[in-house]
Write a structure and sequence with these properties.
443 residues, mainly alpha, Clc chloride channel, 21 helices, 70% helix
């Protein structure tokens, strides 16, 4: 043991490399914390503007959408969309050193922060969690330049750690970040360095916890102990959330594939900036019709439903569904995690109202995990994220069962969202003469 310990401590290059990874994880966590502040500040200014003039979103949303899409296409094409597919495709063997910067880099991280915040300044229905994955991965990737030849973590490990650290820091859920790394990113994990990778993920999450406090993100859900009375409503909700989430995923895949031939898709291809302005106007109309509830990420609406402190507009789930889809279709950098939680919470709230308010808090939590699991087809990640965000440890088995049922239903409707979108990202890599178009196998 003494000899093994001496050899472990004697290699200063190894310890330098480990230190670099740890420092990069802290920087990634702090960056996501800063991104969170900027995004929330942008949302606050949009709310203040809307309070001054109810019609202001009808001008702000189209203008911001058009400006963001123009800037994205002109200066940072790799920053478009969620950010999770970019990190996933960078992990593929088809992507070499020369192509990696198309999807993940420090420049794209900076662009993602600014462009996503600009979208929230216009009230667009988007989340910052998917963008946080790409942002943190771009920062962690810079550690490779400083580690030297004794690097204990390869490019794959750094991307996995960075992407999962983004989820951990954005949601204030370190365990959710670890599960996201296992379920979505680490298809071929590096066993030798898995401890360091997990340490980096947890450390970035702890940085966010230190900044935001250790409270549950959406407060504490006050649900009665699950019993047989929850079985049938919970099963109904899981199926409904699975259908809605599967349709949402399929709709995103079809509209973002660039392969549709309908009039709207042709306009999106020919006049992307004008199309984005039209999408922004549609989101603004939906937001005004819902008294502002459909604007932004949906955090406020979700917290209202979880804590039971207010009523939501009629058909809020449908309106938020449409606003989020249209926002993503516009081409702006936009995540779907937070809006998905809002949609799921609304579905759960609607089912509870149909049952005369029975088990409302529990059904809201189940709706959140069901829709998120169905939309992302990552049931374990969805279950852990929701459990941590609403402090729902008393509902562990119910949340897990709902996530799995919704996942199975969604699989029958849509292929995996992020893996499919990652396959579309491969088309951005220039082909050599005579080379066949690349494809990414779904997992």
């Amino acid at each position: 043991m003494r000899e093994a310990l001496r050899q472990e401590l004697a290699d200063w290059r190894l310890w330098w490399a480990r230190t670099v990874v740890v420092v990069a994880a802290v920087v990634a966590g702090l960056t996501v914390v800063g991104f969170t502040w900027l995004a929330e500040t942008a949302s606050h200014y949009f709310g203040a503007m809307r309070a001054l003039a109810w019609w202001s979103p009808l001008l702000a949303a189209p203008a911001c959408a058009a400006a963001v899409v123009w800037l994205t296409r002109r200066f940072a094409p790799g920053a478009a969309g969620s950010g999770i597919p970019q990190v996933m495709v960078t992990l593929e063997k088809e992507v070499g050193e020369a192509e990696r910067g198309l999807f993940v880099s420090l420049r794209l991280s900076v662009a993602k922060i600014l462009l996503t915040s600009a979208g929230l300044l216009g009230g667009l229905s988007l989340g910052r969690e998917g963008p946080s994955v790409q942002i943190a991965a771009g920062i962690m990737l810079q550690a490779r330049r400083l580690m030297g030849s004794a690097a204990p973590v390869g490019i794959h490990g750094l991307l996995v750690a960075g992407g999962a650290a983004g989820i951990a820091a954005a949601f204030n859920t370190p365990l959710g970040g670890v599960m996201f790394a296992i379920e979505e990113l680490a298809r071929a994990p590096e066993r030798r360095s898995s401890g360091l990778i997990i340490a980096a993920i947890v450390l970035a999450g702890l940085v966010a916890v230190s900044a935001h406090g250790n409270g549950a993100y959406f407060g504490v859900i006050h649900a009665a102990a699950p019993g047989l009375a929850l079985l049938l409503p919970g099963l109904l909700l899981a199926v409904l959330a699975g259908i809605a989430g599967g349709l949402f995923s399929r709709l995103l895949i079809v509209s973002l594939s660039g392969q549709s031939t309908d009039w709207f898709s042709r306009q999106r291809a020919r006049r992307p900036v004008l199309f984005a302005a039209g999408c922004g106007l549609a989101v603004a109309i939906i937001g005004v019709a819902t008294a502002g509830a459909a604007f932004g990420s949906g955090y406020g609406s979700t917290r209202t439903m979880v804590e039971g402190t207010g009523a939501m507009p009629v058909a809020y789930a449908l309106f938020k569904f449409l606003a989020t889809w249209i926002t993503s279709w516009s081409g702006v950098p936009a995540g779907i995690f937070a809006p998905s939680l809002a949609i799921g919470a609304a579905i759960g709230n609607d089912v509870a109202l149909l049952l005369y308010g029975t088990q409302a808090p529990a059904l809201i939590a189940l709706g959140m995990v069901g829709f998120l699991s169905a939309a992302t087809q990552a049931p374990l990640t969805a279950f852990i994220i929701v459990m941590e965000m609403v402090d729902g440890h008393a509902m562990v088995l119910s949340l897990m069962a709902c996530a799995l049922v919704s996942f199975v239903v969604a699989r029958a409707i849509s292929p995996p969202l992020y893996a499919t979108l990652a396959g579309f990202q491969l088309a951005r890599i220039p082909l050599a003469p005579g080379e066949q178009p690349r494809s990414l196998e779904h997992h």
